[in-house]
Q: What sequence folds into this?
C-alpha cells in the first residue's frame, strides 16, 4: 500500500505571509496532483506534476515534484484570505501493465486558514 | 465544470437500513470512483468502475457495494448502514486512466 504523508495538518497564518505544504512518501509515483477543497464542495484539481524535478506555477502558487518522484511541495507566496481551504495531494502509482485504472492515493490534507 | 451530480446531498438514516447514493455524469467518462472523506484521513477509495458493469474494490470496501448499468450512473449502496459509515461521500470521474479526476459536490450521510 502506498502512503502519502502531508504536513502540516493545520496552518493558520496572516494575510501576506508565505507558506509551504509538504507531501512525502517512501513510494515512487508516476505523477502527483494537488487539489483544493472548499467547505461543502468537492475537491478541485489545481495541477498535475509528472516529471521528477518539475516546477509548475499557478499565479502565487508554486508546485514542485521531487527529483525521485517520491515527494512534492506546494508554496504559496503572499497568502490571501481567498486561499483558505483544504489542500490535498494525490499520487498516481507506477502503472505496470495498465491495471491501476486511475486510482489515486490521497494525503490526509492540510487545512489552511488565512486571516485578513 | 465537469457535469457531475450526486443525490441526495444530505441524508440521515438509522442503523441497519440500506442506503443508496447516486452519482450521475454528463461527460461520458469511462472511469468513476466513490470515496469517503473523514477528518484526518483525506479521501479513501471505496469502489471504482472502469466501464459499464466493470467494477472493483478500493481500500475501504467492506459494507459497501456498487453497480454501474449505464455509463452515466454509478450507484453506491450501504447494505446495512452502521454509525462508522457516517461520512461525506464523493463521486469522481475521469476520462482515461490519466489520473485527473473531477469530483461531485458530495453527499453528507449521517447514520444514527
A:
Amino acid at each position: 500500500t502506498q502512503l502519502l504523508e502531508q504536513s502540516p495538518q493545520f496552518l493558520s497564518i496572516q494575510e501576506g505571509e508565505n507558506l509551504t505544504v509538504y507531501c512525502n512518501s517512501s513510494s515512487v509515483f508516476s505523477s502527483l496532483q494537488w487539489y483544493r477543497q472548499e467547505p461543502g464542495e468537492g475537491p478541485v484539481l489545481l495541477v498535475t506534476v509528472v516529471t521528477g524535478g518539475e516546477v509548475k506555477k499557478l499565479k502565487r502558487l508554486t508546485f514542485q515534484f521531487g527529483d525521485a518522484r517520491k515527494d512534492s511541495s506546494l508554496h504559496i507566496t503572499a497568502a490571501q484570505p481567498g486561499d483558505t481551504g483544504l489542500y490535498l495531494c494525490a499520487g498516481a502509482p507506477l502503472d505496470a501493465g495498465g491495471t491501476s485504472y486511475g486510482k489515486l492515493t490521497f494525503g490526509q490534507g492540510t487545512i489552511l486558514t488565512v486571516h485578513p | 465544470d465537469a457535469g457531475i451530480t450526486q443525490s441526495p446531498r444530505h441524508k440521515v438514516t438509522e442503523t441497519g437500513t440500506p442506503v443508496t447514493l447516486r452519482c450521475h455524469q454528463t461527460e461520458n467518462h469511462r472511469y468513476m470512483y466513490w470515496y469517503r472523506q473523514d477528518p484526518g484521513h483525506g479521501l479513501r477509495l471505496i469502489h471504482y468502475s472502469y466501464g459499464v458493469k466493470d467494477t472493483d474494490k478500493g481500500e475501504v470496501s467492506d459494507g459497501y457495494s456498487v453497480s454501474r448499468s449505464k455509463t452515466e450512473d454509478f450507484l453506491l449502496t450501504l447494505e446495512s448502514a452502521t454509525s462508522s459509515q457516517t461520512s461525506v461521500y464523493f463521486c469522481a470521474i475521469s476520462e482515461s486512466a490519466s489520473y485527473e479526476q473531477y469530483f461531485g459536490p458530495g453527499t453528507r450521510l449521517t447514520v444514527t
About this structure: The mean pLDDT of chain B is 93. Residues 7 and 65 of chain B are 17 Å apart (CA to CA).
